[in-house]
Amino acid sequence: MVLPPVAVVAVFIGLPVGAAIAYTLGKTGGPNSTVALFAQRQHVAHHGVTLGAYREVLGNAHVRTDLWATVWVTLVTVVCVVLLSWAIGLYLRLSDTWIARVVSALSVVPLFIPVVIASYAILTFYAATGFMKTLAYHVGWHSFPTLGYTLTAVVIGEVWVNVPFGVLMMSSGLNSVPNALIEAARDSGASLPRTVRSVLLPMNVIPTVIVATFTGIYVLGSFTVPYLTGPSAPNLMGVSMQQFFGSFNQPQQAEVMAMIVFVLAAGIGTIYVWANVRASKRASSTT
Amino acid sequence: MSAVEHQGVALGDLEQAELPVARANRRRRPTVRSIGFHALGIVLVAALLLFMIGPLLWLMLRAFSGLWQFPQFLPSHWTLQWWRSVFDDKSLGNSMKLSFEFAPIVTFASAAICLPAAYAFSRLNFPGRRVLLVSLFATNAFPKIGLYISMAGVFYSLNLMGTFLGVVVVQLIGTIVFMTWIPTAAFSSIPRSLEEAARDVGAGPLRVFFRVTFPLAAPGIFVAMILSFLAAFDEAQGTFLVGIPNYITMPTEMYTLVLNYPEQAAAVFSILLAIPSVVLMSFARKHVMGGKLAEGFQIR
Predict the structure, then answer these.
(1) Domains in chain A, CATH or no CATH each
(2) Does the pLDDT at position A159 exceed 90?
(3) Chain A hits for B129, Cβ within 8 Å
(4) Quick count: other Cβ atoms within 10 Å of Cβ A152?
(5) Which residue of B has its CA nearest to A8?
(6) Is the interface score ipTM higher than 0.95?
(7) Model's pTM, two decimal places?
(8) Is B114 on the interface with A (CB under 8 A)?
């Protein structure tokens, strides 16, 4: 009974990823034979493997700036999402007023909106004739930058999309910190910041790591947000990957970029696993 | 890829019993009641209104604007003509039809593939159970666009590029985690004693399943189906890669719309595209907001 979904994953994820690894190393046979028929600028290994495709892609200055743009946008987005969802999660943990209910409702709005629409809405909001420019104009700030089609707009879009997940994770994590611990800290005279630093922060490490890793992987694999809101160059690897595949007809180069992104994501994934293992070790040593 | 799809990762243990700590916490929470803290909340609300809601409202206004010049906050002339032009456009109508064909097909295909597995994961203890359950997570552990590029390369050999089935497969990939993890948790939350009791009074295994197990798991399955439907309906980047030029669904149509149509038409189309998400997510909202997310993520 468990076979069908496992088979789907094996055939449509395992096989393509395996084939893509082989293809980027110059193996054009088997499942890669059809794509290899029309691909331009292929690096083919007749014996063993070749790193030619990797050398070409990493030697391309445009791809390198895209790579740095990707790393930069990913890092900034992760930091923003973690800080924002911590702030909102903390507020929700320590408040039970109508304000908290409004904050909680507003912070999950992106769940309801398709990403394509969100990206387009964000583009127009920060465009040269958008709301932010209009507002800045009326308060006399005429030099307010046009953010549409910049990497900043990409960051704004990625943060917008990822905040609900962050808030849901953080508030769930913070809610599982026993009230008694918070009260004990406050009763013994700890200030609010101190309580956060020495009680809530250490008890909410894992949700924080989860939010950071999943946001990071999401940004690395995103196409819609950077495609619609970002500049034509440099943009994120997702966009250039699609261009190499579709417009330039260079699937091998596109797949090399996919591999680079997988490696970055694997690095992030390792942090996630490491944090989990460490936490479960600590849990088993204390109980 | 939709936000929902990405969040779906977290929903695994949604239906499971709430942690006692969380339940106790809800009863009497320590709260901060200083004026400064409330003021901070108001600032937070204002910032969220601007950052989260602002772009959506700004886009909605655009759908009704005849003339709107910088730096005015509102259009100086209102019109409904863009709605007419979108409804009259044949290719846009076609993409709407396609979207409403793909999403249900993908949802039911995903249910047929995953629900039996979900039942097995929850009721049978077999070697490698945990490994297999986690392996399905591969669909969400890869950066999506990289995965789609790899899939597209092999799809040429499988004759799936530009085909209906190819698009179904790409969209299906994004629903697998929802369709296995949430129903697995739903089945697991049903006490076995209920099924045993039914069997004791003489019900056969099929009858037990359809009269006892399935009705109790139905809400969880329903949520999984809503989230899968939306994941398929909102999927843009994989469909774009695999489906063009034959299959342009609503979200993929947005890519061209933004570049080649007047802004107002794109705004109208955005509103139309958002309606199914808003309506269906409202049904699933209670479950998504449940707040038992963190546990599902911890590897044990």
Answers:
(1) 1-50 (no CATH), 61-286 (1.10.3720.10)
(2) yes
(3) 2
(4) 17
(5) B173
(6) no
(7) 0.89
(8) yes
